[in-house]
Amino acid sequence: MRTSFRILAPIESCSYLPDQMARMEYEHVSELTADEYAARLMAGWRRFGHTLFRPRCPRCQACRSLRVEVDRFSPNRGQRRVRKANEGAVQLQVGPPRVSRARLDLYQRFHDHRARTRGWDEREESPSSYHSAFVSNPFPTEEWSYILDGMLVGVGMVDSLPVGLSAIYFVHDPDHHRRGLGTWNVLCLIDEARRRGLPHLYLGYWVADCLSLAYKSSFRPFEILGPDGAWHPL
Fold first, then answer.
1. Considering all CA atoms of the chain, what is the largest pairwise distance in Å, rounded to the nearest integer?
2. DSSP string of the chain, one letter each residue
3. What is the domain-level CATH number for residue 189?
4. Per-residue pLDDT for 149 more than 70?
5. By C-alpha distance, which of 163, 154, 226 is closest to 186?
6. How many domains does the chain have?
7. How far apart are the two ends of the chain, measured CA to CA in Å?
8. Residue/partner pairs of 151-158 with CB below 8 Å, 24 or more apart
9. What pLDDT, on a 0 to 100 scale, did the predictor assign at position 211?
10. Which residue range is the domain that position 56 belongs to?
11. How many CB atoms lie within 10 A of CB 141?
């Protein structure tokens, strides 16, 4: 039987903007179709596994859902350099999500690096928590794995929806940060969305003043979801 429940989390310090207070709304669903999630995505929700979430902050609306207009996208100079560096060198494999020691190690190394360089909270990812967040999904999800010289250097989770591709999460090897693998992942997603005839790539929440999220606005043209529930070019 299909079940769901919602929780409005307590107000806490914002992890994106230190001078702001944040509050999240969560909904856990036992079942969900791709069409149903597409409607929720269009309304500003995101998800990890069976848990959907959206910001419900008391005085701030800095978190804005962002989507790239695939057919009109034009790479900037830096993005063209990233394509030149990685195209033909980094192999992409698309398949179902799974847990492995290589994936757990990559996830941990990425987060340890961000904790040191950007002040992220330290975390220890277990096989069960990784499975819950990325492998156990209410509808089929794609894992995009990036291989360089036989080594796993990047892993991204992607939803293929009627309204476009949705990038769920991406981690990469900090030892190869000069390759711009995060940018390369987005460029590959844009290419694939265009190939599949999908109009948009959804990149999640954009916060202009947060370094970890501000990069999303470099993929132009893009639209953001406004407080009126409509998407607007910016």
1. 51
2. ---EEEEEPPPEE-SS-TTSEE-EEEEEES---HHHHHHHHHTT-EEETTEEEEE--SS----EEEEEEGGG----HHHHHHHHHHTTTSEEEEE-----HHHHHHHHHHHHHHHHHH-PPP----HHHHIIIII--SS--EEEEEEETTEEEEEEEEEEETTEEEEEEEEE-GGGGGG-HHHHHHHHHHHHHHHTT-SEEEEEEE-TT-HHHHGGGGSSSEEEE-TTS-EEE-
3. 3.40.630.30
4. yes
5. 154
6. 1
7. 42
8. 152/102, 152/103, 152/106, 153/90, 153/106, 153/179, 153/181, 154/90, 154/106, 154/181, 154/184, 154/185, 155/103, 155/106, 155/107, 156/185, 156/189, 157/97, 158/189
9. 86
10. 4-233
11. 20
Round to whole Å and give the CA distance between 93 and 171: 15
Amino acid sitting at position 135: V
Residue 154 corresponds to which amino acid?
G
pLDDT bucket at 212, cuts 50 / 70 / 90: confident
Show the CA angle centred on residue 163, arms to residues 162 and 165, nearest 5°: 90
- Tell me the pLDDT tens digit for each residue of 35-84: 999 999 999 999 999 999 999 999 999 999 999 999 999 999 999 999 99
